[in-house]
Structure formats: C-alpha cells, structure tokens
Amino acid sequence: xxxxxxxxLNWNGVKHLMQFLPSVVKYSTDPMVDIVLADNGxxxxxxxxxxxxxxxxxxxxLDKNYGFASGYNHALKLVDAEYYVLxxxxxxxxxxxxxxxxxxxxxxSCVAAMPKIRSWxxxxxxxxxxxxxxxxxxLGYPFCKGRIFSTVEEDKGQYDKNSDVMWVSGACMFIxxxxxxxxxxxxxxxxxxxxxxxxxWRIRNGGHKLMCFGNVHVYHEGGGxxxxxxxxxxxxxxxxxxxTVFKNHPSKFVFWYISIRFLLDxxxxxxxxxxxxxxxxxxxxRAHIYFLQHFREYYLKRRTLQKQKIxxxxxxxxxxxxxxxxxxxxNFSDLT
Length: 336
Hints:
By secondary structure, the chain is of the alpha/beta class. Helices cover 40% and strands 20% of the residues. The protein has 11 helices and 13 strands. Strands 1, 2, 3, 4, 5, 6, 11, 12 and 13 form a 9-stranded mixed β-sheet that branches. A two-stranded antiparallel ribbon has the order 7-8. It has a two-stranded antiparallel ribbon with strand order 9-10. α6 (195-205) runs parallel beside α7, α7 runs antiparallel to α8 and α7 crosses α10. The longest helix is centred in the C-terminal third of the chain and has 21 residues, at 254-274.
C-alpha cells in the first residue's frame, strides 16, 4: 500500500492535463506517492497523452462517463493507499503540498482536509469552489471562508490560520481511505456538484473532524467541465443541495427548512426569468420535480442516517441568505 494516491478524475480533459499535470508530477515525487489518472471514458487523446508523456502515472480506465461522484467511487475501489487525494484536472499544485498537508492532518487528528484554494486566473484571490474552507447555514446553503455566493475575497492572509470546517472542496480533497470507504463514498445519484458537501456532512455527523490548512495553497481554474452559468450545473446544484439538506440535517424541523428552500428557490427562479435565462429557470423546476419524485427514496436514506449518532455538525446558526442579501455582509469576517 502506498501512503498517498493523488487521483485525478478526467473526462475529455487533455487540455487541462497538458496545462496542469506538470505541476502535479513535479511536486509529487515522493516514492510513497502514486499519481493515478481515473479516466471517465474519454473520447479524446487523454490516455494516449498521459501514457506517452508520463509513463509512471497509473491509469484506471472506466468504460463510460460516470460523473464525479460515481466516477470516483468506481476508480477508488482500484486504488490502494492510506490517503486519497481527489484532485481536479484543472488544479496547479505547489511545492511540498503533499507532505505539508499529511503532517498537518496528523497534527490536527482530522480525517479529511483541504489546502487554501486560490484562483488560477487571479492568483491573489480565492477561488469559488472551496476558497479557505466550506461551511453550511441552518437552511443548508453552502458558503466558504473567502467566498460567499458570488463575492470572492482577495487573499491577504486573513484566513491563513488552520480552521475546523464543515466541508472540504472536491477540487483538492485529502481524505483517509478508511473514512471514505466507511461512509461509502459519494452518493452516486448526484452525478456531480455538492457530493463532497454531502459526504463531509455525513462524516461530520459521524463525529469526525475536517480542516482547512491555510499555510498550504493550490490554484484552481474552475468551471472546467461545466461553466458556472450552464443550466445543467444549475439543475445539479439546486437538486443536490435539496437532497443533501434532506438527508443530513439533524433537526426535526427539516421539512420546514425544505419548504423555506423551495420558496427561496422560487425567488432565484424569478431572477433567472427576469434576466431571460429561461433554461436556468427551468432547471430549478426540474430540480424540484426530481426531489418530489424521489422523496420516498431519500426519506428512507434520511431515516437510516438519523439512526446513527448525530452531533451538531457545525452548522452556521443563521441564514447566510439574510446576512448576505439583506444585511450586506459580503465577507466571511463580517459574519462574526
């Protein structure tokens, strides 16, 4: 068994591999580290490129595009390591990133962690998908230290201190393999988006610790598979967010929270419609229809999860929607 396996899930991403894989190879040379390309049935020349230019990289070939959630679940069954590093193909890593992260995880006794994630385009700013660690408000809306909704902060070292977080970004997730397997990995119905929040919430409810280490950073391009305005992304985000709240929220008032979420989603629907983004507005309708059609399935999942020991998972005990849009608290430091 290797100590660490850096597993890059790829689907037709040869351009990203050409751009970002060199940094991964350069800064992951430890003999106890494997780099694995988990290919999601690509039809471009991704496999040929990696095989030719990086023959030491192991390749796991999946027969079709399973998406992020199921793709990683399938691939990691074939990877033997103490720690998994789930790394997006559009991430540029930095010197000594792996040993520093592993040492910090040991020091903090946490089971999953992330480095600080900066934007590859604007390197002095945080990146949308994770920033300096993820949180969730009591209605289930995710936000980050360094990014709330569309407001992304400049990184001035204000969040460099190690912090206990609710979720760690799937763009660069360090997780103990035994924990990933114990909690049965990602929910494969998600396909992509929010699956890491769902997994982290389950892990937190199980009594485990997750951290963001601000003294290590990587750069993420973002929007590499689906652009941020893509209607499919809108559908997956709204749908998976509802499913995540319904499955994991420890409160007996979860049905009330879901009702509020439907109402707030309708506000988002109006916003998209006014902006003439009808495909995105319809995506919200589809998300709600899916939730209602699969209500029984996820109600049973919730019952199973609620039988486990549930702790306060570290929810932000206020509405981030109210704080952001009404009180105009745009930065994470404004929330305290």
